[in-house]
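Please decode residue identities from the backbone states below.
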């Protein structure tokens, strides 16, 4: 009995999901240098396929679960259940035009505008909702050069920061979709699974969720004057408030433990010092379960 998980076989998503699985205690064990499958321990098995093919594998139940970008899932048109946002591979599918065009929104586009994209399903649906008449120009890559080659007037493409668009003289005018890596299953997958496989699936989802929740968080410990605990509670709200522990022969000092955001941590430490906190220690968190 095996729980099959379809994973991207190459690219940034492939690297990040392998790292996430390893952090969750499920490192990949390959059977050979060119193996298309790998063991994750126990009954878990990874299948390596193209990222754009994963929605099909999962929808057709060739795999029990899959990890790929939300953009590819939506473009596939296959109905899938999103079990978990893995919070990496973040990007946006945007509409962009040449920088010099006097266009600020979809309403400014010409009737019959030629739009190049590798996402014809999502693009067509977006312009239909916007009541804009366009001519889709499906391409397989290098979408950003289409306006300069006269292939299309406008493009719909993925971007993370917008820097590649700017380099190519393009400007965003609308967002079609926000995307990130998702763990997905076929609809009704739970009801059709054997109890052992269902339990393994829930264990996997829980393990990945705990790693995702821990990212961007830190565990902070400090010795705090008892008289400043209200200030510390404001600075370190934690999950359910900071944990306060009496120190042996600590006098008016107590130990405070709390989970805090990594962003802004330097400012938090500075404010803790200003109210008399000492012995401040910060560590990473591997997993976080609410």
């Amino acid at each position: 009995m095996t729980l099959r998980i379809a994973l991207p076989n190459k690219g940034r998503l492939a690297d990040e999901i392998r790292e996430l699985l390893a952090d969750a205690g499920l490192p990949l064990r390959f059977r050979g240098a060119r193996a298309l499958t790998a063991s994750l321990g126990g009954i878990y098995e990874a299948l390596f396929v193209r990222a754009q093919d994963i929605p099909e594998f999962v929808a057709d139940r060739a795999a029990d679960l899959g990890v790929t970008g939300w953009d590819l899932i939506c473009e596939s048109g296959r109905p899938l259940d999103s079990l978990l946002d893995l919070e990496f591979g973040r990007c946006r599918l945007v509409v962009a035009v040449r920088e010099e065009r006097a266009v600020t929104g979809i309403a400014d586009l010409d009737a019959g505008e030629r739009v190049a994209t590798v996402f014809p399903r999502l693009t067509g649906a977006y312009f239909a909702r916007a009541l804009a008449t366009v001519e889709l120009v499906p391409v397989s890559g290098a979408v950003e050069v289409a306006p300069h080659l006269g292939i299309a007037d406008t493009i719909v493409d993925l971007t993370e920061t917008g820097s590649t668009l700017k380099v190519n003289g393009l400007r965003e005018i609308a967002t079609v979709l926000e995307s990130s890596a998702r763990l997905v299953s076929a609809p009704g997958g739970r009801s059709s699974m054997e109890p052992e496989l269902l339990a393994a699936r829930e264990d996997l989802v829980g393990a990945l969720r705990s790693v995702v929740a821990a990212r961007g968080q830190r565990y902070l410990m400090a010795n705090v004057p008892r008289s400043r605990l209200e200030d510390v509670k404001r600075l370190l709200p934690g999950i359910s408030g900071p944990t306060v522990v009496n120190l042996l022969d600590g006098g008016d000092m107590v130990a405070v433990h709390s989970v805090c955001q990594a962003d802004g941590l330097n400012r938090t430490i500075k404010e803790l010092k200003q109210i008399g906190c000492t012995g401040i220690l910060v560590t990473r968190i591997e997993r976080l379960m609410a």
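Observation: The longest strand covers residues 170-179.
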